[in-house]
Design a protein that fits this description.
about 325 residues; mainly beta; Jelly Rolls; 2 domains; 8-stranded mixed sheet; 6-stranded antiparallel sheet; about 0% helix
């Protein structure tokens, strides 16, 4: 299956002498933490961050859940209601079928290094048609500690399909997306707080935290359709490139299918020695650089890497020629 990811890149030119610039806790005893896997850290700084609860150990590495009554657990097949995971082998459950009305419990992500408020949390939740008067629900919080106290409520999803946010068809998985609070930045957690009203159980799956990505209105769409290889440059048997102009912003996609990854090559020509600044923003880690024409070329003139959010830039002084 191909995976579609978005990127945004801008290239700026500045003649020498006028350089272009780019603007660009501790867990208490009432919770069950999972210690990090050997050699790992609990601070997540690579995005998108994903968890589908397929691993046998629960909670997953660096996650936290309430101990005792109110705990979340891992299920490979759901009962009350009957359901299967949204993807993979398993899903997370808050057992509001058995927990008495008013019982709550939290499931907390690892600590996330969020450089700005331009991130969003995605998750899938099973919305069933049973016990319509029992408002079992999940509250989703942003917090700088792994709890709800002092946190910001991002949104609420009821288990019963007819309650807010109502959906037309019961007994299906639905995706929900919440943005981080405006002005927030730094290390934080996403907290899922289940509330039982003694109806059916709550199931969630495929949690993802990623950068918000929107193409600006002044951008030009990449010419290569997602899943194609039309601008693979020197990686192609017959090299092909996509032109990029002075001050132009391109917005497009990249993809991978498990064995092959997409690379996007852009071409421009200089008539004199120039400072060139290349900026990339993306939903995935980036390797960017300048390479001289023509092919074959086996090394960058200069390069940079980054997470894609915040944007990363690279400036080089390039002689007249094509790159």
């Amino acid at each position: 299956m191909k995976k579609k990811l978005f990127f945004l890149l801008t290239i700026l030119f500045g003649v020498i002498g006028s350089r272009a610039q780019v603007n660009t806790s501790n867990v208490t005893s009432s919770y069950i933490p999972h210690t990090p896997l050997s050699g790992t850290t609990c601070l997540v700084n690579t995005f998108p961050f994903k968890e589908s609860f397929d691993g046998v150990t629960f909670p997953p590495s660096c996650w936290v859940t309430t101990a005792g009554t109110g705990t979340w657990d891992r299920q490979t097949a759901g009962t009350n209601p009957t359901c299967t995971p949204h993807s993979g082998a398993a899903m997370a459950r808050f057992d509001s079928w058995d927990y008495g009305a008013g019982t709550t419990g939290i499931l907390v992500t690892p600590q996330l290094a969020l450089s700005s408020d331009q991130y969003e949390v995605h998750f899938w939740m099973y919305r069933d048609g049973g016990y319509g008067t029992s408002a079992d629900l999940v509250n989703v919080y942003y917090n700088i500690s792994p709890d709800t106290a002092g946190g910001t409520l991002l949104g609420t999803i009821n288990r019963y399909y007819g309650l807010s946010p109502a959906v037309s068809t019961p007994n299906l998985w639905y995706e929900y997306i919440f943005n981080m609070p405006g002005g927030s930045s730094g290390n934080a957690y996403i907290v899922f707080k289940g509330l039982s009203q003694w109806g059916n159980s709550i199931f969630i799956d495929d949690v993802k935290v990623k950068a918000i990505f929107n193409c600006p209105t002044v951008s030009t769409a990449e010419l290569e359709p997602c899943g194609s290889d039309l601008n693979g440059g020197c990686n192609m048997v017959s090299p092909a490139f996509e032109p990029i102009a002075l001050g132009e912003t391109k917005c497009g996609t990249s993809w991978c299918d498990g064995t092959t990854r997409d690379t996007d090559w852009y071409i421009f020509t200089l008539t004199e020695t120039t400072d060139v600044t290349f900026t990339v923003s993306s939903e995935f880690p980036v390797l960017m650089g300048f390479i001289a024409s023509p092919c074959p070329q086996y090394s960058f003139i200069t390069y940079n890497t980054g997470t894609g959010v915040p944007p990363i830039s690279l400036t080089a002084t390039l002689a007249a020629g094509t790159y």
